[in-house]
Design brief:
Layout: E1 2-7, H1 13-22, E2 27-32, H2 44-60, E3 65-68, H3 71-76, H4 78-84, E4 90-91, H5 95-103, E5 110-114, H6 116-121, H7 123-130, E6 135-139, H8 143-148, H9 155-168, E7 173-176, H10 185-194, E8 200-203, H11 204-215, E9 224-228, H12 233-243, E10 249-251
This protein binds D-glutamic acid.
Amino acid sequence: MKAGVFDSGVGGLLTARLLRSLHPQADLLYYGDTVHLPYGDKSPQQIKGYVRDIGRFLYGVGAQVLVVACNTASAVGLEGLRAEWPHLPIYDAITPALEAFTHHRYAEPVGVIGTYTTIRSGVYGSALRRMGYAVKELATPLLVPLIEEGWVDHPAMEAALETYLSELGEVGTLLLACTHYPVIEGAVRRYYQRRGASVRILSTAALLAQKVARDLPPSGQGTSQFWVSDWSERFVRVASAFWGEAIALEPAPLPSTPAEW
Ligand code: DGL
């Protein structure tokens, strides 16, 4: 069963890599929408159009399962996918995280960081408050461009995290509600350690990869293919770092038609 995984840019490769490590036989088709990155500051209408085009591309190259490895796209762009392929298994980045909060009681307040669009959608805040959690949400829009630039262990990242996490204030649990964030989990952990704060960190990328790995049948050849909407040497370099080995990215532009959904 081929799994079509996508995100804006190459950050979603972190989810694909986790999935590969949990399910080495899985056949992966990855699409990174490098033209439209970051999604987090785009309108829901635009994002719906990108999601539709990527869904059609991945379905066209043989995906039998779709994995929306992007909180932003999951927050605003899913209905169209589900309407177009009602029988296709479609995994989003939000459901596994909310399931984790229903199966376990985490320390409060729960901090949620993600893109403008994810935070503004209120998808995490409203669900967690309904479960009785005290929640603090903060949009952290500079993190994705820094990550896509490969500036992970960089003073600019440290300064951005320092600013955002101190603005968020005290939390008992921090939900990384962006699939780009696994690469900065260590830096986030160090921030709290420096303050002597014990904070449980949950990653939406890891929870999504775990859910998909559990559900996929234990078969496949362990193949992988990667496409991007805009190809450049820089994307190849960053993608290879995220995937953990040299990667061949193929260019596959999306149709530029406006969203109709
Ligand atoms: N990784 C994505 C997410 O989980 C998208 C980030 C972006 O493009 O702004 O929201």
